[in-house]
Each structure stands twice: as structure tokens, then as C-alpha cells.
Amino acid sequence: MQFTVDSSTLLHGLQKVARVSPTRSTMPILNHILFTVKGNVLSMRSTDIEITYTLNLNVVGEDEGAVALPVRLLQEITSELPDTELTFAWSDDSRVTLSTTGGTYKIVGRPAMDFPEAPELGPANSLEIKSKVLKRTVEKTVFAVSKDELKPALLGVLFELKKNEIRAVATDGHRLVKYTNRDFVSSDFEANIIVPPKFLSLIQSFLDDGDSINLSVGEKHISVATETATIFSRLIDEQYPDYGSVIPSTNDKTVTLSSKDLVTTVRRVSIFSNRTTHQVALKLHPGYIEVFTEDPEASTSAKEQVLSDYDGEELTLGYNSIYLKDMLKNVETDRVVFRLGSEIGPGLILPEVQADKEELVMLLMPIRLQG
């Protein structure tokens, strides 16, 4: 079997599908990409079992066949080649020869039968979402997804699909983001699904290609397809916690200040924070906030002041500076609003004015101040 393809076209395709292949796996076959040639179409498929990415490329094909080839080796050689025609030829023993006008390269592949079978979605509902809506929904929430394998429900973004809105929630137990967008209509289908962040990251490139994107949602799977590519993922089959019960409704202390001034201050002050805790403190005074940190181990400290609209009692709160910066970067308005209750209770971080048809609510748990 044999086919010929432009090396730059192949490299571009490899860079896409290789994002699914795991860097480490107990199954060596997952470090391969399945090449299948039918006529003048090359189908490349990669998987980590949970997610499968299939991409079709136009090639000049001779005969039909399939073979699994190692991802890393293919990427390395194609990235070093000039823009040239690259011919693949292989026999029944899965030994592959790559040829260009200037050289020949031999690779030992794996039989196609060793590669995991293509997944099937089963009965599914079709859901059309504006690309800009889904893109903002992902960007506003995915950074807060947990990485704790012991809490599988928190390893993805919860999507609540309603008739007239889409709501997304992500939390890692220390911070929580709830984003609602009402520029969305679902005529019949409503559901709550937990979507892995890797799938959401992979489809980001699709969201720049058109006005809308069509998702197929099954009982346990989700997929998205374009004319040349399909990404398929298992949903996280867990019960998401009752996030509404942890969002406080009685925080009666409100602080409003410049988003830019606060985030740049936190960036500077946090340079001097402890490398393990990343702790900074916000001390609220009438008219200003004092941002400070101290690291006794390194004998470093820093302190700055930021003007604010606040006339309540003095209050000192400790935060993980990395989490705080992530949330402040998520605020697009010139001024940010903090709604606080006590030094040990969760605080809410909000834009001063919500965007049209949107609502963004972020919760951040304080940490105990040291010293």
C-alpha cells in the first residue's frame, strides 16, 4: 500500500491529532496514530481511550490499507523536512518506508488490528451552539477545573443545558466559577453533562472556523464534527456536587476597586510570597485595600495599597495569589466587586457590570494567614 502527501500538510495534521495521544501510557499502542488510506483520502486517528480524534487529509493514494505508526517519530521527522512530497509505502508486516527526493526513512509500525476500535456514539441529540458563546463559556470556566483524581466529578466542566440558556460550572474545592449565557436556545433537548477539559481544549480550534458548532450528545458520550475532523469524548459519569449550596447569599460587605490596579499589585506583591503557599493578604480599610505578604523562610516581604470604595469595618483575608490572579484576569470590566462575609467564609468576585446576556459569579475560599 502506498500514498503521497505534502510534508507540511502532514505535519499540520499530526500536530492536531497528536494532542490526544498520552505522553505516558501502560498501552504502547496509544503512542501511535492509525493511518488508514482509502482512495485519495488519508484518515489519521489517535486516542487515549477517553477521547478520539480523527482527521482526514487529501493525498494521492495507491491501493488501500491501514497501519499504526509512532507519533513522536513521525512528528520529529516531518518537522525537520523541508516542504516536499513524502511517500509512505508499507507491506503486510507493518514495516513502513518514507521516501522524499532526498532521502529514505524506515519505520516499524504496528498492525491496524492492534489499534483500539473507533468509538460509537449511539443514540444522540444534536445541539447547535454559537461558536462565540461556547468559546466564552469554556474560557470563563475551564481554568477552575480540579486536577484531583480522587474527586472525579470535579475533573470536568458541568454544562447545564436549558431551553433558553447555557450554564457552566467548574470548581476545585478552593474556587468556583459559574457562568451563564442566555444567547442560546435549545428547542427540545435539556441536560446536565460533565465534559472533560481536554475535549473542550481540542474543540477550541473549531470555534474560530464558523458562526456555530454542532455537538452530538449521547447518554455517555459527546462529539463534534467538521467536514474533515471528528472529536469524540466520553462524558464524566459522576454526580456533580450541589454547587448552589456553597455560593453565599448573605455576604454584606462590598468592596469595589480597579481591576487593573488590583491584579498588577497582586502580581508584584506575590513575587515575595512563600513558594509553597503563594499566600497574600488583603486588609480592608475605609477607602483603600492593603495588599501584603511575608515569607519568613526567605526573609522577604512586600506591601502596597490600592484605592477602593469601601466604608465597612477592617477585615483581613488571606488568599492563594495564583487563584486570585486567575479570577481577576477573568473580569473584563474596569472595576471588580468583592462581596465578603467574614475572614474565614467564601468571598464572591464579580464584574462591576455583567455583560449583555451573561452572568459571571466567582467564589474564592480564603486561606489561614500564617504568622
Question: What's the structural blueprint in terms of helices and strands?
Answer:
Blueprint (H helix, E strand, L loop, with lengths): L1 E5 H11 L14 E7 L2 E7 L3 E8 L1 E3 L2 E6 H10 L4 E6 L4 E5 L4 E5 L1 E2 L12 E7 H11 L15 E5 L4 E6 L3 E7 L9 E5 L1 H6 L9 E7 L2 E5 L3 E6 L18 E6 H12 L8 E7 L2 E8 L4 E10 L5 E6 H9 L5 E6 L6 E5 L6 E7 L7
Antiparallel strand pairs: 1-5, 1-7, 2-3, 2-6, 3-4, 4-18, 6-10, 7-8, 8-9, 11-16, 12-13, 12-15, 13-14, 14-26, 16-17, 17-18, 19-22, 19-24, 20-21, 20-23, 21-22, 24-25, 25-26
Helix pairs in contact: 1-2, 5-6
What does this structure look like?
The protein is of the alpha+beta class. It has three domains: 2-114, DNA Polymerase III, subunit A, domain 2 (DNA Polymerase III, Chain A, domain 2, Roll), CATH 3.10.150; 124-243, DNA Polymerase III, Chain A, domain 2, CATH 3.10.150.10; 247-364, DNA Polymerase III, Chain A, domain 2, CATH 3.10.150. It contains six helices and 26 strands. The protein has helices at 7-17, 71-80, 131-141, 197-202, 259-270, 321-329, and strands spanning 2-6, 32-38, 41-47, 51-58, 60-62, 65-70, 85-90, 95-99, 104-108, 110-111, 124-130, 157-161, 166-171, 175-181, 191-195, 212-218, 221-225, 229-234, 253-258, 279-285, 288-295, 300-309, 315-320, 335-340, 347-351, 358-364. The termini are far apart.
